[in-house]
Every structure is written in structure tokens, then in C-alpha cells.
Amino acid sequence: MTLVRHHGGAVILFTFIVALVLTIIPLPEWGRYLRPDWAGLVLIYWCLALPDRVGVSSGWLLGLAVDLLTGSLLGQHAMSMALVAYLTLKFHQRVRLFPIWQQALTVLVLLMLHQLLALWISRMIGRPGVPWFFWAPSLLGMLIWPPVYAALRTLRRGFRVV
Amino acid sequence: MALSAVLMVMDHKYRSLETVRATLSMVIYPIQMLVEVPSTVSDWFSESLATRRHLQEENDSLRTKLFMQKVQMQKLSALEAENIRLRELLDSSFEVGEKVLIAELLSVNLDPYQHQILINKGQLDGIYPGQPLLDADGVFGQIVHAGPYTSTAVLITDTSHAIPIQVNRNGLRTIALGSGTINRLDLPYIPNNADVKAGDLLVTSGLGGHFPPGYPVAVVSAVQHDPGRTFSRVAATPLAHLNRSREVLLVWPGKTSILEAVEPPPGEEVPAAGADADARDAAAKSMEVTP
Description:
Chain A is mostly helical. Chain A is 72% helix and 0% strand. Chain A is built from 7 helices and no strands. In chain B, 34% of the residues lie in helices and 25% in strands. In chain B, the strands form 2 sheets. A 6-stranded antiparallel sheet of chain B has the order 1-12-3-4-5-2. In chain B, a hairpin with a 6-residue loop joins β10 (216-224) and β11 (231-238). The longest helix of chain B has 38 residues, at 52-89. Classes of the chains: A mainly alpha, B alpha+beta. The interface between A and B is large, with 36 and 39 residues.
């Protein structure tokens, strides 16, 4: 229980909406396969920064929005996002103290887990296998984690979101 | 967790979530519109800033095209009349006109591993799941989810899609499956001794009741006979510009055709995949009698 009153919910919502817009914004053909998982990155950040505000249920709702936007099976992203949120919450105290490159590695593991679950589900419903660059978005996610982290932290401190 | 598992199973197996999906798509509609804004603005700018000369040139070329097509139409109407007369002799009904609606693709990217598109028409325009989609050159795909304002369509090249077709030259009926590659369809059920050549035009057969008969789908690009297999390996190139078209045509198929009259008409609420499976069975049956 925190004694400080929560505020800045609008900022959190805004970052989630920006992430969702980036999820479906049109890219050239080669870029479509490299699109990092923006929603996942933003979710991981808020779960690390404000674990008492953003958690499994926010992750689930965000995942459901991604499902609707990308036309995937309803509940697929919801499930994996909820899992990502759960794991981040579980280890948030440890991950927060990591140096940034180690954090990025953790993010890589979380994002790959997210993709693995997606792959598993799509194979279960009879979709074909994927090429090796299926995993590229996770690697890209790891590489852009430091700037994303810095940007969101600036935003959080600037608007005093607690 | 459990809730999402239940959701997934229900969405995949029973398609009972169409109303839920439609309602929820209202919530995400603003996000889709937000993404659409830049391309709308740039379209508007390029149209309003076009020079007079450019417009005149475009006007001229369009006028020529219209004239050419009018000439072709004259011939077509004569042929159509003749066709109807001949069918009357055979005692079968034939409906030529079909209700159509033009829809525009929204410029959003969906899952890159599924061939799906989003269009700017929805249930409020009378769109229903399973409705066929065409572009200027051929069959495009069919609607899978219809929201109130937007709907999602699956392209004919998606791996989950199958379309009943026939070879225009000799009427051989078969199924074209999506390959997952944007410029290829697979025809896996063609016997080794069947008469199919590269360059053959494939048109919709109308079996299955989802697609209206007679629309061009693809052109056979390669036929590979393998004596060790029952079926030959046939690939076809879709005629529709699946990754380039900005406008698509939604069709409300006419009541009857000579082919569908034989088949029991399936209900409209039958899910797309089921209907395709029915069509596959039907074509498999028909293939047994084909030499």
C-alpha cells in the first residue's frame, strides 16, 4: 500500500495508445517482419516502474486490444501479455537494479517467451511454420529497450506519474 | 489465463464470438482511424494540389478507357442476352446482375504472417462474414470478421483459405489453396492425367455457395507431373493485385446459378472454413468422375 495518491493515469493510457498505434502503423513490406513489439515493451516498462498500478489485468486488456487490432485469434496476445506482465511483476525488484544491458537481456527473454507462446498457439490452430526472422522483433526489442526505457522514464518523471 | 484460453477456443472452434468481436472493435476504431489519418491527409493534399494539366491528362486517359470499355460492353450485353436465351432453352435460371459495393482498404498493417486486410465498410453497410471480395482483375478474398464500421478480410493466398474453382478451358473443377506467399496459389488435388496446362485461366466455380461463379481467380503458372504421386503439383498466380489494390469490390452473390442449383444451398451463417471444407468434399466427389 502506498500512502501517495495515484495520479498520471492518463499518461500511462497515452503511452499504451501510442504503442498500439505503432503496432499497426503501415510499414514497407520488409519492415513488417521487423516491427518490434511496442505494446510488450511499454507494458514491461510500466510493470517495472509501477507494479502496483500496471499488472496482469492491464496486460490482459492491452493484449486483447492487440488481438483486435492485428486480427489474431481473440485471446492469444491477451494470454501472452498477461504472462509477460506476471513474470515482470514477479521479478521487478531484481530487474530494476540490473544495469541497462542486463535489463535488455531480460526483456529479450520476456519478448521471446511472448513470441514462443504465439508460435505455439498458431501451430496448434494449424498455421504453417515460420522463417528464422520470425524472432527478429524480439532481438530488435532488446536493442531498442535502452532508448524506450530512457524515454518512458523521462515521461514518467516529467509528469510525476506515481 | 483460463479466460483467454476459453476465448481462444471459442473464437477458433465455434465462432460464437463474432458479436463480441464486433462490439469490441468499436473500442479500437479510433486507434485505426488515428493510424489512417496521415495517408488520408496525403491523399487529400496530392489531389487538391494536382496541376490542371495533370488532371486534364488523367481525364483524357480515363475517357479513352471508358470509351474502350463501353465498346466491349456492347459486345458483352449481346453475349449476355444470348447466354440467357440459351439457358432458357436448357430450362435453367441465370442471374447476371449482382449487388456490389466499393470499399477502401485502410492503411494499417495486420499480423505479417497472416494475409488479412482491413476495409472501411462494416455491418452497417450490410457486410456479413463470408462475403466475397473482388478487385478490378479477379477474386481478392472473403470477409472473416464484420465490425460495425470496419471489417477484416482474409486474402485467397492465406494458408487458411481455400476457394472452389474450375479451369475455364475445360470446366475441370478443383480447389485452390492459399500458399502463404502473396503471389501463389496451390492446386493440390489435380490428378496426374488431368488436362491442365500453364497459362490456363482459373475461374470461381460457385460450388460452396460463397463465391459467385465465373469470376477469374488465377492463371496456372507451373504444372509438375510426378509419376510417383497421385496428384500433380500445380501452382497458380492470382490475378487480383493482392498487395497493391487500394479499392475492393464487395459482392452480394446472386440467387442461383446452374452449378449451385444442384447443390443444397448452405446457410449464410455457415462459417467460411466449414463452407470451404464442404466445397472441398464436393470437388473431391466431382473429381472422381472427371477423367
